[in-house]
Amino acid sequence: MLTSFWDNCIHSINQQFEDVEEFRIQLTNYAIAHSFDFEYVKNDRVRVTVKCKIPSCGWRVHCSRVGLGPYFQIKTMNNVHSCGGGISTNGHPRASRRWVGEITRKKFIDSPLYRPRDIVKDVFRDYGINLPYHKAWHGKEIACKDLHGDEALSFDHLRWYATAVMNTNPGSYVELECTPEDHRFRRVFVSFGAVIAGFETGCRPMLFLDGTFLKSKYQGILLAIIAKNGNDGFFPLAFSVVDQETEDNWAWTLTCLRGIISSDRRITFISDRGKGLMSAVPSVFPDSYHSHCLRHLKMNFKELLQLLDAAAYGLRIEDYRKAIAEMRCFSQQAAKWVEDSDPDHWANALFPGERYGELYSNCAESFNSWILEARNLPIVQMIDHIRVQMMEMMYKRRNEASEWETYLCPSIMEKMEKHQVGCRGLQVLCSDGNHFEICGRRGEAVNLNDRMCTCRGWQVFGLPCIHACAAVWKINRSIYDYCSSYFLSDTFRQAYAGAILPVVGVQRPAEEEEGSIFIKPPFTKIRPGRKKKKRIESQADPDAITHNRCSRCKGFGHNKKTCRNPVAVEE
Fold first, then answer.
1. CA 473 – CA 467 distance, rounded (Å)
2. CB of 325 within 8 A of CB of 369?
3. Which of 32, 207, 278, 528 is the most buried (most CB within 10 A)?
4. Closest by alpha carbon to 121, among 112, 133, 108?
């Protein structure tokens, strides 16, 4: 709900206002609330006199300054209309774009996603005025400019903000780059010292990469680099703002990242097969592993998803080969398309690195949704909004972790409890103190020293599988001692031991004229026509990915309406 009539209207003699502008705003609210118009008799810095716009009406208000101070006070007020009427239409001449900006300004502080069409609805509900959409849009622009300043100047303010962040948050890294010819903004990289230290001491060597569109006037792309904490929550490590998602921008972002993380950690990157990532990751981190998000692969594949899941989730090479063989029975082209899509970058059985069972880039997607409001702000305000969100999140998680009494993080504790239930009834044969044979429908071998099991569950997920749990119980040891240190509660606390400090004590530069701006805003290219919202389909062979499956005979290439085959018998 917007401002109330009576809380923001003139109402009596001797009512005081902070300045003359506040009086004018409340006068306008009063006129709109009572459906009449007025005109100024006198209107200057020390006094304001208004009367009803109907010449024969006696309504009149006089307000003047109190002494030499800034306050204004109503001195005389005839609050009776003798004109006998008001404005009979659903509009109002005083409902200007400036007025819309004034009544919605506080709303935008709490709700940056407040839309013009919502303004139209709220103004009609609260004031009974049918506001044109264009006036609501301009009012929003005025309110945002009053709150955040000129968006074009925001790029130049990156200079002092970068210095402020590195001065107030030791260990932070901010890299700003402009075009050498005309000093236009090109890209910026931001990472705070507390999260850099937290990633090194408390997070797995695994990073999620993704880009998302910005929705401010000058648009752009935010490239996010997200880690994962021991409790399976996302841990924002760094981000950059660029003009487009290209190989050059990803390579520049990853080069900045390489300068802030330890060189002796072999990182696993998880991302979609987006623009520039396929070549940027191996060029900047040649010793790293690159996993492709399974969700994006499935969006291109469309059919035979159960067999694709079997190939991706299978832990052993035999499981992968079995899934591909079954797929080949249905479609040779589909099986060939899967084998040609670099399965060593997404299949558990073939992936050479450690990714702790992560097949999707959901962490980066969650971060993009988390900063949805910030993506609508000017660049400096957006970066600072993200900083505040990260600061509050670290404080909250630090306090929550201080109350944990479990050895492992809560989400990991739940997984291990399920493993302990699942290992009951397994027969364990001892070879020595470290090697064990687990009897069952398919026997498995466990090596506690190397933390390996032939089912490959321990190697893939970083947690003891049910076979390893049975072996550990056999020798009366603690299962928790064989979990990766990244899942310990103490490691989680180390990740959030640091704090992102406020950036408020820095003297912000005064507003400058556009001609004296050192860093100018980038050129924004908007393609003509209506914006496309439907995802562009894969350019792969359509015959390999668009097989229709009949629900009647379970065959491929047709549906039940055109089916001429016998009904499939349920097995």
1. 10
2. no
3. 207
4. 133
Please give the Cα distance from 553 to 110 (Å, whole number): 56
* CA–CA gap between residue 197 and residue 479 (Å, rounded): 29
What ranges in 149-180 are assigned the alpha helix state H? 151-154, 158-168
- CB environment 176-198: b (16+ within 10 A), e (fewer): bebeeeeebbbbbbbbbbbbbbb
Determine the Cα–Cα distance for residues 453 and 444; give it in Å rounded to an integer: 7
- Of the candidates 269, 192, 199, the one whose C-alpha atom is nearest the C-alpha of residue 234 is 199
How many helical (H) and strand (E) elements, i.e. helices and strands, does the chain have? 20, 16
Rounded average pLDDT over 242-260: 93
Closest CA to 258 of 230, 282, 229: 282
Q: How far apart are CA 445 and CA 403, in angstroms?
A: 38
pTM: 0.80
343-354 as b/e: b if 16+ CB within 10 A: bebbbbbebeeb
Report whether pLDDT(93) > 80.
Answer: yes
- Dihedral (Cα; 240, 241, 243, 245), 10-degree rounding: 40
- As to burial, measured by CB atoms within 10 angstroms (0-12 exposed, 13-18 middle, 19+ buried), residue 219 is middle
Query: Do 203 and 486 meet the contact criterion of CB atoms below 8 Å apart?
Result: yes
- CA separation, residue 365 to residues 23, 209, 225, 229, 306 (Å): 47, 9, 11, 16, 24
Across 4-128, the runs of DSSP E, i.e. the strands, are 16-17, 38-43, 47-52, 60-65, 72-78
Pairing of strands 289-292, 268-271: parallel
Q: Which of 542, 552, 533, 570 is nearest to 303 (CA)?
A: 542
In terms of C-beta distances under 8 Å and separation of at least 24 residues, what long-range contacts does 11-19 make, across chains too?
A: 12/74, 12/77, 13/74, 13/75, 13/76, 13/77, 14/73, 14/74, 15/73, 15/74, 16/66, 16/71, 16/72, 16/73, 17/63, 17/71, 17/72, 17/73, 18/70, 18/71, 18/72, 19/70, 19/71, 19/72
Task: Report strand pairing: 206-213 vs 268-271.
Answer: parallel
Three-state DSSP class for residue 173:
strand
The set of residues, in sequence order, having a beta carbon less than 8 Å from that of 535 and lying 6+ positions away, is 299
- pLDDT of 440 > 90? The answer is no
For 486, residues 6+ apart whose C-beta sits below 8 A from its C-beta are 202, 203, 204, 230, 462
From the list 97, 103, 256, the residue with the least C-alpha distance to 174 is 256
